[in-house]
Amino acid sequence: KEIDAHELINGVVNTFRLKVEKNNGTLEAELNAQDPVIFVDEMHFTNVVFNLLDNAVKYKSPDRDIALKIRTWNENGKLCISVEDNGLGIKKENLKKIFDKFYRVHTGNLHDVKGFGLGLAYVKKIIADHKGSIRAESELNVGTKFIITIPLFKEE
Ligand code: ATP
Ligand code: MG
């Protein structure tokens, strides 16, 4: 279905903002893309955005309040969406494994957070099914940024 990506993102952001602000955190949306219409499965794509924000909250740093940013822009006729946090960050050697099924970073008792290690494998599969791609950039103890690139919908 043709979906306005900004409407979809705003829907997810609104449900998350409450959760983040309850914990003294902030969630900023800078949705600057033009005509952000994409041809996606609405339910799955909502889950993708939800998963990224869910991780950003789950893997917060114990040292500071959560600050999240979600942005959109256009690049080479495609839509880019980034989700950026100021959380625990991920070591370079682990970064390449985070999209693998069942992979979770071992952090001892640093964060006693439960999960199956499936969220990002799901995200990657859904994005790939929509001819898009996703990559992650991270710095340990600074934060993590996920960037999705997905084709815009074009009427034929
Ligand atoms: P699930 O999503 O299935 O509940 P999960 O969150 O452990 O479990 P993924 O979402 O696939 O699984 O993430 C894999 C691992 O990557 C996580 O266990 C965590 O170690 C790391 N990770 C993911 N997102 C972030 C993030 N924003 N900041 C720091 N680490 C992250
Ligand atoms: Mg997860």
Automatic annotation (TrEMBL):
The Histidine kinase domain, residue ranges: 1-154
Superkingdom as given in the UniProt entry: Bacteria
Annotated protein name in UniProt: histidine kinase
Covered range of the whole protein: 361 to 516 of 516
